Amino acid sequence: MADKIDVIVVGLGNAAICAALSATEQGARVLMLEKAPIEERGGNSLFTAGGFRFVHDGLDDLRHDILNDLSAAEAEQIILPTLPAQTYLDDLMRVTEHNSDETLAGLLVGRSRDTMRWMRHNGVRFIPMFGRQSYKLNGKHHFYGGVNIEAVGGGWGLVDQLLKAAERQKIEIRYATRLVRLLQDRRGAVTGVTVKGPDGYADIDAKAVVLACGGFEANPEMRTRYLGPGWELCRVRGTRHNTGDGIKAALDIGAQPFGGWSTCHAVAWDISAPPFGDRTVLDNFQKHSYPIGIVVNLNGERFVDEGADFRNHTYAKYGREIMKQPQRAAVQIFDAKTIDMVRDEYRIRQVTKAQADTIEGLAQQLDIDPEGLARTVTAFNAACQPGDYNPAILDGKGTKGITPPKSNWALPIDRPPYTGFVVTCGITFTFGGLRINEHGGVLDVTDAPIPGLYAAGELVGGIFYGNYLGGAGLMSGAVFGRLSGHSAGQHARS
Length: 494
Ligand SMILES: Cc1cc2nc3c(=O)[nH]c(=O)nc-3n(C[C@H](O)[C@H](O)[C@H](O)COP(=O)(O)OP(=O)(O)OC[C@H]3O[C@@H](n4cnc5c(N)ncnc54)[C@H](O)[C@@H]3O)c2cc1C
Fold this sequence. Notes:
By secondary structure, this protein is α/β, with parallel strands linked by helices. The protein contains 14 helices and 21 strands. Helix 1 runs parallel beside helix 8 and helix 6 (112-121) crosses helix 14 (472-493).
């Protein structure tokens, strides 16, 4: 059996399943290896909202081939800005301080639309992200921030629909089977893998291997080594299985490390959340409405510009700022003017919050220094400038004379009751990984491709540095999964 496998795909998240489907299209016989038992399958992809960022020309364009299920009545309610390729690229370069690798960034953006069409063709259905990426103004849903379309059923739905496609292609999956090391011949070509499964260690031969088994976010030793002191203490938002195994196995045979090794995607995450993702609560421990409130530490001091940009452009770097605060904690505060506008994740039962009629009362309930908080709120309120408030655009209604400023959406915190949500840092995924070429092939330390080795998803380095664009993670996994699967399939058949 094992000697007839063309392509081994390591992992069972979005990137891996896209790679497996794509390799199958090339006529390859594919085996997928999932470290998790079946009941924990799906990687981080399963925990997502299923939101994708891709190039499009607006709603009419999308209704042709991505949002085929949308009714005319629903379409009537939607105001959806276009996402031109240049805007996507410019935003990616801006948030990564122009560190994103130009070739990889160009592939991500340039192939995003066609890859969405390909996923739709493979049975994944999509809808607009009404709940999280639009504000209702004058009876219409105004979408903003560039990630506006999600898979039906979110991340769980995405993985389910992709797995159904894999089932249709009769792709074999082995659960509870983890990659231990890569096998090579004397030329250096990858010839298979050693795995540890329910029956112990085994070698499996293949003509090509695609690594799509995530970053090292769930590995406290690697987090601390690469992200820095204290990172063993953050919460992990998703799967406990992404412990850097694929990255390590590839580095062990001379693959080239690449990308933002000391940075990661990390967000504001409920302080009472468990150490790893919860498959019922999913991403609802996140708290992403800070742009319409203020954020303070336990001294009562603000420490970020909550309105620097759309949430989609700041949320992934603000978790790291929370890590630097006393007790790795922060409190997001809203007053009666904005509390009804917070995202759905604030209304779950498992939420750490308090409400009070005075700022001092709120501080006491949440163990914030009351004098510090009162001082901060008084100064913040006095600094809010007049202007037209509009949370769906960068409204420029900022503060003047305080540090840090709030650059948009600055409304005074002055109408009781006041509600505070206590958060800590939740890591999503790491940015450092392997270097791939334009075919998805893994490069070695001399820049030469390692024959038979491909990679996709979180473990590819060089796309994100320091910050990230919402919806680009799944898109990257799909684009590079499809690309590396295609290349691996061709390599195996050649
Ligand atoms: C809570 C949360 C919400 C998110 N929301 C979004 C969103 O809406 N939009 C977006 O674009 N991105 C989102 N992301 C980021 C997104 O999850 C990732 O960018 C993307 O899913 C990564 O896909 P992947 O296939 O590379 O990794 P994963 O989906 O994590 O898959 C990795 C797979 O590898 C397996 N594995 C690990 N080690 C081994 C081994 N040794 N052997 C075999 N298998 C192994 C794992 O079990 C898993 O199946 C979110 C992430 C989280 C955690």
